[in-house]
Every structure is written in C-alpha cells, then in structure tokens.
Specification:
BirA Bifunctional Protein, domain 2, globular, alpha/beta, 29% helix, nine-stranded mixed β-sheet
C-alpha cells in the first residue's frame, strides 16, 4: 500500500495515533470483543452510536465492540474527500431520498445501501497491541477471508486499500472498502462489503474517488446479478466476517449472538443498556 493511499484510507488524525496516551494495560490480542448484529440502521443513527461507543471505550467505561449492520442508501464523504466525485446532481439524490454526509473517517466518497455488510469495530488499538497499519491489514485480510467463505477469490491491490476481485489482473473490481478514524487511541468506522447490493447505485459516484472504477459484489461474482438485496444474506456475511476478524486480531473471543441466532432488536437494546451505565 503506497503511503499516499494509506493516508487517504485513514483520517489525517489517525496517522497521529501513536502519539495518543498509551494504555496502562498489558496488551492482550485475544481480549473479548462484544459483537452486535443490528440489522438495518439509518446512517446518522449508527454514526452517533459509534461516536458514543468510541468515547466510552476511550474512557475505559466499556470494552471493545463490533457493530454489524446494513444501511439504507446513503453517500458519505471522508473528511478530506473531493465532493466532485459525487456524480449525481443534488435533485436526483433528493428525489431518491439519498443523503450526502461528510464524516470524520479517512477515504473518499462511499456508497452504502441495502445488501451491503457494514462493520464498525470500536477497538482500543494499544490494548490489543496493535499499530494502525497492521490493523488495516487485519481488516483487509478479514474481508478477503469472508469472500473466500462464499467462494469468491479476492485480494489486496497494491496502493489501493480495501478488497478486490482480480486485484492484479486486467479487470480489477472493488468488492470491499474501508475507512478509519482514530481518537484517543480508539479506532472506529470500518469496512463495507458488497454482498448483493444494487451495483447500479455505484454509478452515482466515482467510488473511492477513482473515475471508472468497477464495483462488484459476492452475488455478481457468483453469477447472481439480478438478485434483490437481502438483509438475510448480509447477516450470513456478517457472521463470516466477525469470525474472520477475530482470527486476524489474534484469536479474539467474540461475546454475543451472531446471525442466525442474533436478533437485531435485542442487539440494539444491549447497546443502549451498555451506554446507559455511567463511567466508574
């Protein structure tokens, strides 16, 4: 990964993560991560939830968390992203009910929508003995392993963070994106994996700020191009990704129910209870 593209995937503040106060705990890569399947969640709601969880994690009030969900259609811009990469005019986005938001993560413009797995790990990096670059590699490796679990060969593409099909071939296609923010040593935001998302919606943007970039999905690579976006299939991918990420982080233990046993309403209720507990 080139230094320029690495910085683009992270927020500028994230590159200062090593200057954050070091935790007094002995690093434990296998420490538990509380996992929550949340189903379909509006972007603003999940964004607020992430920030509250990240603040509580930085203060030591809670442990590491992993949110697994999908969003209704929305476009997000990284903190320093170029808005010219949004190709759709404002009236079209408004007519389709697609909001455009600038957020604090790194990276360029990204589309989220039904049929796409979004994972937001809320992790204290030092407590896991992680530096930022190895953490990014772990996210990419977990994306690659999730694709493999569904019979899709994917990999890294040098200089371009994320997950790619035919990464080094004549027709590279992006199947997974990532963008991270680090504050007070805690990483949040995360990844998006195209499961059976409507690929035509990526025509609204230059994905990741790359004109002409081809996007793909697990469904498309499996020959199911006309499949309707399915929360159930996103849940299946969520289960695979959670297990893969836990392994990549040093065989961390996942606490909580994963699909199909998980219930989205119960997952959100558990988070609300967690955030309602005042810090010690």
């Amino acid at each position: 990964m080139s230094p320029a593209c690495y910085r683009a995937a992270m927020d500028g503040a994230a590159t200062k993560a090593l200057a954050a106060p070091v935790s007094s705990h002995v690093p434990d890569p296998s420490a538990p991560i509380a996992v929550h399947w949340l189903g379909t969640v509006p972007y603003r709601d999940a964004w607020d939830l992430q920030k509250r969880l990240a603040g509580a994690r930085a203060s030591g009030a809670i442990g590491d968390q992993l949110l697994l969900l999908e969003h209704p259609a929305v476009l997000t811009l990284g903190r320093q992203a170029d808005e010219s990469h949004v190709l759709a005019p404002g009236p079209l986005l408004e007519a389709r009910g697609i909001e455009l938001l600038r957020v604090e993560r790194g990276g360029e413009v990204t589309y989220h929508g039904p049929g796409q797995l979004v994972a937001y790990p809320i992790l204290h990096l030092a407590d896991r003995g992680l530096l930022l670059r190895p953490y990014v590699r772990a996210l990419e490796a977990a994306l690659i392993a999730t694709c493999a679990a569904f019979g899709v060969a994917a990999g890294r593409r040098d200089g371009h963070p994320g997950c790619w099909v035919d990464a080094d071939g004549p027709r590279p296609r992006k199947i997974g994106a990532l963008g991270i923010r680090v504050e007070r040593g805690v990483a949040y935001h995360g990844i998006a994996l195209n499961v059976d998302v409507a690929l035509a919606d990526f025509e609204l943007i230059d994905p990741c700020g790359m004109p002409g970039l081809a996007s793909t999905s697990l469904a498309a690579e499996q020959g199911r191009r006309d499949e309707t976006p399915s929360t159930e299939r996103v849940a299946e991918a969520a289960r695979a990704f959670a297990g893969a990420l836990a392994r990549e982080l040093g065989d961390a233990r996942l606490d909580g129910a994963l699909p199909p046993a998980a219930d989205a309403a119960s997952g959100r209720a558990a988070l609300d209870r967690l955030l309602a507990v005042p810090a010690a």
